[in-house]
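Q: Got a minute? One more chain.
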Amino acid sequence: MRLEVRVARRYAKALVDVLSDEKLEKILSEVKVLDSVIDEKAVRYFKSPVVPLEKKKGLIEQVLQKIEASEELKRVLVLMAEKDRLGIIKEFVSEFEKFVNLRLGVIKAEIVSAVEIDEETLSKIKEKIENLFGKKAEITTKLDPSIIGGFIIKVGDKVLDASVRTQLENLKKAIVD
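A: Always. Here it is, folded:
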């Protein structure tokens, strides 16, 4: 694990540890807004050794004020600014989301399909995933016409590949062997 991720994990865990379950979702939504506002140019600015700490701190305070961030999030990010750690803000966002999902019992699942999946089918797949893992599922979908048909479901490090492309490749291997 990279040093940046380990450091970001400590800040994220510290923030999660002081929050109640009720506040976790609220602050997670603030962190997601923050993530959408902070682009690669801002990260380069935060990582730059040429930019004085006070300017970095001033910028993050302006952003936090604009997104109306909670006091807990402000304290962590200002501390990160004072320690010149804002260059790892993307890693912080990622690690914070992982800790929140772990604590709230949420798993992320990605469904890749060749065509758009209707809401009813998506709902059934979500229910199956929740029953299988015993956790609330947060589903994202992705279109990939190269899989020809069927779908691929990714949950953590587990992959269920029910794509036509994979079935054709397996059939090809069976015929050749």
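A: The longest helix spans residues 21-37.
Q: Perfect, thanks.
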